[in-house]
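User: Can you predict the 3D structure of Mitochondrial tRNA methylthiotransferase CDK5RAP1? Sequence below.
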Amino acid sequence: MKGNSSLGLLGFVVRKYISPFVHKDRYRRYYCSGSHIKDHSKAMELNRKLRSGPSLQDFIKTSNKSSDELHEEHEEHYMTQYTSSTHSRKVYFETYGCQMNVNDTEIACSILQKAGYSRTLQLTEADVVLLVTCSIREKAEQTIWNRLKQLTALKKRRPKHEPPLKIGVLGCMAERLKTELLERERLVDVVAGPDAYRDLPRLLCLAHGGQRASNVLLSLEETYADVMPVHRTPQGHSAFVSIMRGCDNMCSYCIVPFTRGRERSRPASSILEEVRMLSDQGVKEVTLLGQNVNSYRDLAEEQFSSSELNPQLSRGFKTVYRTKQGGLRFADLLDKVSLIDPDMRIRFTSPHPKDFPDEVLQLIQERKNICKQIHLPAQSGSNRVLHAMRRGYTREAYLELVENIRKLIPGVSLSSDFISGFCGETEEDHQQTLSLLRDVGYNVGFLFAYSMRKKTHAYHRLQDDVPAQVKQRRLEDLISVFREEATKVNMSLVGSTELVLVEGESKRSSEELCGRSDGNVKVIFPKVDLPVQPGKPQKDAIIRRDYVLVKITSANSQSLRGHALIRSSLRKTKTSEHHLIEDTVSC
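Assistant: Sure. Here are the predicted structure tokens for Mitochondrial tRNA methylthiotransferase CDK5RAP1:
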């Protein structure tokens, strides 16, 4: 073994020594032979060119075509097959859940229209069906699952000579249940989360090519500020305008931070531009939207970035996150929006009770076109349950806020959200919630039994230990007490005159019209012709988008009834009432 190693080492040394001589000999035999002089010259020329570097002409083939013709010939379009064939494709939307989903539908529609799609209101005409979904409760998701099965059956019955029907799920359920939708159940072709609507053209391109496609990535920046939604409100009497997306509150029961991401506010300039456009179209009511709408803060507005403008919370309220500093706040935005059109009603939803400093309340009181109606979600009347929910306030702080609101905005209408049967809720907790309903007295209420959602704090840390039948019984208690109190609140309006924005015919009778009061309560009244102008004999029918003063004659927990007196407007309400008094005196 040792001898073999010595021989190997000797061979290596010999090869190392004679190698230079061998290479020199090869060089002389190849490059110095007469037959390779030409090759050597070429090599030297190439070496010279490489040192000096090639020019642009070395890479361009001479052509007589113009630069425009060359650009057109070589230009490659993104998704050529998709963009050239979508002009005949029609998309049908079905929207479920909250007002944010209505706005999401309008955003998605705008994006797809620019990609060549047209919207249809007839399911039978559709090439693509998109469901804009909600994940807030299990019942909402089950509704979507049932609908997907129906649409899958429709897809199978589609005639062979027509392009295959494509089905997509958008919104919160898409983000939460992507795997189940695409792989396990295989009921859909496209899945797009709330921050992925810009990607819909690409996703649908893949689907038309026979693939299943998804994008459920959440964004820290996406607000669709540059996308002008396609508003489809009948005759344009009202519209929703999104001002922010996501939520940072992290309430223990809520799935929203996990399906819609962190809070980010849309630039104020974009919001104001959209509201002006809606005003020019004759829209009479705009609702500003956000999961936590009154925590709006446009940090891009440098002129509002003073350190003096610190966040102001309602007294006795706190947050679980570090609040943002500076920027243009909700009160500033509400001020600017309300000045665009004095005859356009302004509402906002859904707020959090913590973000109602006095400056917001005072602005609501001062401006005639900001509705004197506030949504004030309580969720529970029990301090123990509120703590488990991570709401950031106590029952006492909430009641103090209600008192302050009613002091600063006399006659304000309040609405709220309540959950029955949250984790660990006892009968005593339930009774405290019932007493809060009685103490406050709401015009409108949104009441639900608790439905645990995966990913939430409650799912990981708490036990869903209230039996379903107990949740349902407690929910029925909440509904009963709410209706009793709402009836009392609405009955107090009998004999008053309410300014009503007409929405159209009543659902129950074509001989009646309906609309909403400043307090967002439904008002129903008979169809009549009213004077075109006060004091003039000429009369005309009341139409959608008219403001009408209605004398309230009866009420229940859901609505008010009365008869129309005169046409009016937000700016002319006092003048119209004065004319009514004059007419009454002259009679």
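Residues 317 and 393 are 5 Å apart (CA to CA). The chain has three domains: 90-215, 238-299+309-489, 496-583.
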